[in-house]
Write a structure and sequence with these properties.
The complex is a heterodimer of chains A (about 110) and B (about 110).
Chain A: E1 4-5, E2 11-14, E3 19-25, E4 32-38, E5 45-50, E6 54-58, E7 61-66, E8 71-76, E9 85-92, E10 99-101, E11 105-110
Parallel strand pairs in A: 2-11
Antiparallel strand pairs in A: 1-3, 3-8, 4-5, 4-9, 6-7, 7-8, 9-10, 9-11
Chain B: E1 4-7, E2 10-13, E3 19-25, E4 31-38, E5 42-51, E6 54-57, E7 65-66, E8 76-78, E9 87-94, E10 104-105, E11 109-113
Classes of the chains: A mainly beta (about 110), B mainly beta (about 110).
Chain lengths: ~110, ~110
C-alpha cells in the first residue's frame, strides 16, 4: 500500500515564526515530491517541488528531502497570517505512477 | 492563460438524476485525473487518463464513469448519484502524470446530492 503520512494539525505559529511541516512516505523508490497549499474551499496550488536529497529554497519556502529516511519537509520562514491554509504533501511513487497525496496539515498563523 | 476549467462550480441535484461535470484543459496535457475531497479523508483519486481513449480506475471509482475522447476534455459522469457522493470534486492535469511537473487543478465542483 502506497502511503503518504502527514500530521493533520492544526499547527499554530505566531506571525514571523518559522513553520515546519513534515511528511513521510512508504515507497523507497519514490522519485518526485511536491508541496501544495490549499485554502479552505479552494483548489490545491503547487508551491514547491523537490527531486534530490537536500534543501531547495524559493523565497520564504524551503523544501527538504531525505530519501534514506523517506522524509520530506516544508519550512515557511517569516510566517504570515495569509499562510494559514492546509498544506498537502504529494509523492510520485515510480516513473509511471500518479501522485499520492497526504491528507494535509492545517497551518494557523496568528497575528 | 493556462488553466483547467471545471463546470459547474456548484451543483445541487436529487438522488438518481444523471449528471456530468465537465473538465477542460488548454495546456495540451497528456494526463488528466478526477479527485474527490471529503473532510478527514483528503484527496481521493476517482479515475485517471494517461492519454486519449486510455482511462483507469483510481482508489474510489464506484458510481462514477469517465471518457477521454479528445485530449483537452475529461468529463466525470454520475449516472445515478447518491447522497454519499456529496463532495468537493477536483479535476487535475499534467504533462507527465506528475513525475516531474506536478498537477494543475481546476477550481473545483461542490456537489450536493439530496
Amino acid at each position: 500500500q502506497k502511503e503518504v503520512e502527514q500530521n493533520s494539525g492544526p499547527l499554530s505559529v505566531p506571525e514571523g515564526a518559522i513553520a515546519s511541516l513534515n511528511c513521510t512516505y512508504s515507497d523507497r523508490g519514490s522519485q518526485s515530491f511536491f508541496w501544495y497549499r490549499q485554502y479552505s474551499g479552494k483548489s490545491p496550488e503547487l508551491i514547491m517541488s523537490i527531486y534530490s536529497n537536500g534543501d531547495k529554497e524559493d523565497g520564504r519556502f524551503t523544501a527538504q528531502l531525505n530519501k534514506a529516511s523517506q522524509y520530506v519537509s516544508l519550512l515557511i520562514r517569516d510566517s504570515q497570517p495569509s499562510d494559514s491554509a492546509t498544506y498537502l504533501c504529494a509523492v510520485n511513487m515510480g516513473r509511471y505512477s500518479t501522485l499520492t497525496f497526504g491528507k494535509g496539515t492545517m497551518l494557523l498563523v496568528s497575528p | 492563460e493556462a488553466q483547467v476549467t471545471q463546470n459547474p462550480r456548484y451543483l445541487i441535484t436529487v438522488t438518481g438524476k444523471k449528471l456530468t461535470v465537465t473538465c477542460s484543459q488548454n495546456m495540451n496535457h497528456e494526463y488528466m485525473s478526477w479527485y474527490r475531497q471529503d473532510p478527514g479523508l483528503g484527496l481521493r483519486q476517482i479515475y485517471y487518463s494517461m492519454n486519449v481513449e486510455v482511462t483507469d480506475k483510481g482508489d474510489v471509482p464506484e458510481g462514477y464513469k469517465v471518457s477521454r475522447k479528445e485530449k483537452r476534455n475529461f468529463p466525470l459522469i454520475l449516472e445515478s448519484p447518491s447522497p454519499n457522493q456529496t463532495s468537493l470534486y477536483f479535476c487535475a492535469s499534467s504533462l507527465d502524470a506528475g513525475a516531474v511537473y506536478g498537477y494543475t487543478f481546476g477550481s473545483g465542483t461542490r456537489l450536493t446530492v439530496v
